[in-house]
Structure formats: structure tokens, C-alpha cells
Amino acid sequence: IRSELHKVKRIHYSITGPGADQPPVGLFTITRNTGHLYVTQELDREKQDKYMVKATDADEPDSDNSNIRYRISSQEPEEPSPSVFVINPVTGVITVNAEALDRQKYPQYTLLVEAADMAGEGLTEQVKVIITVSANNNNPSVFTQPARFQVLEQDP
């Protein structure tokens, strides 16, 4: 998220927490002068189901000026629906709002996420979030032949 102060002051961006400077270190990197955030490798939900990258405001804590709210202002492509992803307005956590993603039809989504202070009514900044669908298993398991199982009794 870019600060409006970048026009008059030199701003330095940093990222901390799991995936940045805590294990797994280096999963996320940020360009210090631009604030561009990068994911350096595929994320595996089975290894870790979520990462928190939270915007902060330098205003007085617990005041309206530091009360940040998030929203998705656009999604490309808008298929299979314009709301494939949803964002928690308080935490900024993005989740899938669809039964399944189809990597073959839609391998990548671009979200424009907006963060605003004053509980969503103040100054706003936008960031582009690119989501790449890298694994897809939306087919249920089926037996192609009749299955037979044998349970053997064991001696005590």
C-alpha cells in the first residue's frame, strides 16, 4: 500500500512476520523504495493455511485515524462471478468465495484492494493483488472398477 507522503518524503517499506523475517524466511519480499510485495514461491495451504500481512497507520492507536478498513474494488477476470474472492473488512484476509477454482479456465486473478483509514471513510490507498491458481482438484474421487475389501481377523 502506497502512502500519499511518497510525493514529499522518502518512504521506506518493510514486511515482518511469518514468511518474511520469520520461518519460512524469504517467502515474501518487499521492495524497500516502492512497497511492491512479492511471493517468491508457491504457497501450500496444507503446510500453512494463512499468512497475515496487515497494514498499519502511524496515527494514534485505537483512534478513527488509525482504524483501517479493506475492500476489493475490482476483480479481473470477473468469471465465473465478480465475487470469486471476498475480503474481511477489518482484518484484510482474502478468502475464496466459490466452490472451486478452475485453473484451466482462469489461471490468474488480479484484485485491486483498497485500504482506508477513518473506518473506511478517510484517506485511501490501493494495492494490486495477483492470485495464481496453481493446483486444482475439483473432481471427486471415484472407483473405476468395483472395489472389494477383505478384513482379516487377527489372533489375540
Automatic annotation (TrEMBL):
Boundaries of each Cadherin domain copy? Answer: 10-51, 53-143
Keywords assigned by UniProt, alphabetized: Calcium, Membrane, Repeat
Kindly provide the name given to this protein in its UniProt entry: Cadherin domain-containing protein
Identify the main location. membrane
Q: Where in the cell is it found?
A: Membrane
One Pfam short name: Cadherin
Key word Ion transport present: no
**SUPFAM superfamilies for this protein:** Cadherin-like
